[in-house]
């Protein structure tokens, strides 16, 4: 495992395990336990995922020391206010059963995220959060936050994979010292990522799968990745990406795969924004 250092000095594992779309308690708990057995030490959850309690119970059942596991959760926009972010963070700590969370993100850059950020700052200063960040920020929003607040985001979690590379966003994060974190690093399997000819051909040279090549590509760009699966054999494959490096030629081939937009969600669609505002957790 490799680690990246946030600008406040906190170390974050560069590859973690995401639990999005695993809301059922026992399945989520068993998936996290399997991830721990496989060697994962970063677990990414969220209030909106409905599985924080399962993650916390898995941590206790695993017997791992608390300080060995990097726990991330996210505040949903229905709690976006100064008091709401503080209350939501305390509720997350209660559901996880821990005294602190390693990182708390604001799940979407909409609603009253300015005052919600101030709430996260307060919990950060109180030692209840070791790092604070954003999710789904495009470059203009991220730049505005970094220019506005003394405590700028330490991480920005966005969709990022070979078909949607977010080059300007990545450059903006690098400029401000914000660590990029990729959700959906496999594009949710769209465009046949797992069988893509370019990724498969590159993988043959290293004895790796297309999925492993996609993960390695992001790692070499300085991105933290959080692939999700409920299958332990795939967990093992996903974490087995630290024994090879892609050549500059291979990186260039993957760079040419970018289609420049998401096929999972359109964050610029007003109907999508309106729908998100109807969700309360």
Under the CATH scheme, the architecture is: Alpha-Beta Barrel
CATH topology type: TIM Barrel
Structural domain count? 1
What share of the residues lie within helices?
Answer: 40-55%
What's the overall average pLDDT, rounded?
A: 97
Tell me the structural class. alpha/beta
User: How many strand segments?
Assistant: 10
Per DSSP, the total helix count is: 11
User: What percent of residues are in strands?
Assistant: 5-15%
- CATH superfamily placement: NADP-dependent oxidoreductase domain
Distance between the termini: 34 Å
Q: What is the topological layout?
A:
Elements (H helix, E strand, L loop, with lengths): L2 E3 L5 E3 L3 E2 L6 H14 L3 E3 L7 H11 L7 E6 L6 H15 L6 E4 L6 H13 L6 E4 L3 H10 L6 E5 L7 H10 L2 E5 L13 H10 L3 H11 L3 E2 L6 H8 L8 H8 L14 H7 L5
Parallel strand pairs: 3-4, 4-5, 5-6, 6-7, 7-8, 8-9, 9-10
Antiparallel strand pairs: 1-2
Helix pairs in contact: 1-2, 1-9, 2-3, 3-4, 5-6, 7-8
Note down, in words, how this protein is organized:
The chain has a single domain (3-276), classed as NADP-dependent oxidoreductase domain (TIM Barrel). Helices cover 42% and strands 13% of the residues. It is built from eleven helices and ten strands. The protein has helices at 25-38, 52-62, 82-96, 113-125, 139-148, 167-176, 197-206, 210-220, 232-239, 248-255, 270-276, and strands spanning 3-5, 11-13, 17-18, 42-44, 70-75, 103-106, 132-135, 155-159, 179-183, 224-225. Helix 2 (52-62) runs parallel beside helix 3 and helix 5 (139-148) packs parallel to helix 6. The longest helix has 15 residues, at 82-96. The mean pLDDT is 97.
């Amino acid at each position: 495992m490799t680690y990246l250092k946030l600008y406040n000095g906190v170390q974050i594992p560069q590859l973690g395990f995401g639990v999005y779309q695993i809301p059922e308690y026992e399945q989520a708990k068993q998936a996290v336990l399997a991830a721990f057995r496989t060697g994962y030490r970063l677990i990414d959850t969220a209030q909106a995922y409905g599985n924080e309690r399962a993650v916390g119970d898995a941590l206790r059942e695993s017997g791992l020391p608390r300080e060995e596991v990097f726990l991330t959760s996210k505040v949903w926009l229905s709690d976006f206010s100064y008091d709401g972010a503080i209350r939501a963070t305390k509720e997350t700590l209660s559901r996880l059963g821990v005294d602190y969370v390693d990182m708390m993100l604001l799940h979407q850059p909409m609603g009253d995220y300015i005052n919600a950020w101030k709430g996260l700052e307060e919990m950060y200063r109180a030692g209840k959060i070791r790092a604070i960040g954003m999710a789904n920020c495009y470059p203009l929003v991220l730049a505005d936050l970094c220019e506005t607040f003394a405590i700028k985001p330490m991480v920005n979690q966005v969709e990022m994979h070979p078909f949607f590379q977010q080059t300007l966003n990545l450059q903006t994060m690098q400029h401000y010292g914000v660590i990029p974190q990729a959700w959906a690093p496999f594009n949710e399997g769209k465009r046949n990522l797992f069988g893509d000819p370019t990724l498969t051909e590159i993988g043959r040279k290293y004895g790796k799968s297309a999925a492993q090549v996609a993960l390695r590509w992001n790692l070499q760009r300085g991105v933290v990745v959080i692939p999700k699966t409920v299958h332990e054999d795939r967990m093992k494959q996903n974490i087995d990406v630290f024994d090879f490096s892609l050549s500059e030629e291979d990186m260039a081939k993957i760079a040419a795969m970018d289609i420049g937009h998401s096929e999972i969600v359109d964050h610029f669609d007003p109907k999508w924004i309106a729908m998100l505002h109807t969700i309360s957790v």
